[in-house]
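cache lookup: miss for this entity combination. No prior model stored, computing from scratch. Input as submitted by user K.M.:
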Amino acid sequence: MNRKSFAIVLAALLPIAASTAFAASDGAAVYKTKCASCHGADGSGQTAMGKSLKLRDLGSADVQKQTDKELYSLTADGKGKMPAYKGKLTEADINALVAHMRTMAKK
Ligand code: HEC
């Protein structure tokens, strides 16, 4: 393949690669941008906001004992000062967030 046809193939493939990257929800990335400001990067709630809101550690047994459905609803519908993310995030995003919160469980 010469250089020019390689460039054409590359140009044709790039948008496909970009769209699959966007289709897969990255729970860790969404968490970092939308949730870490209150809940902390590690879910511990040790942020100025988290402390004043008295957030429970997302990795604690009390939070982790809830079902995926409950964690999903808490994120989608909000609770008290916890904002509702339904409409702002897709179902796939919220499912990815629940999976990400499971990685915070204390061993
Ligand atoms: C503005 C600060 C704020 C942001 C941003 C925020 N939360 Fe919360 N979150 C709260 C507060 C406050 C509570 C406690 C609600 C209560 O129990 O009254 C909470 C509770 C929760 C709970 C329940 C934990 C428990 O104690 O059982 C989950 C799950 C949760 N948040 C997930 C998320 C996710 C996922 C995001 C990002 C999409 C997020 N939160 C963003 C403030 C925030």
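stored under new cache key. The CA atoms of residues 42 and 104 lie 7 Å apart.
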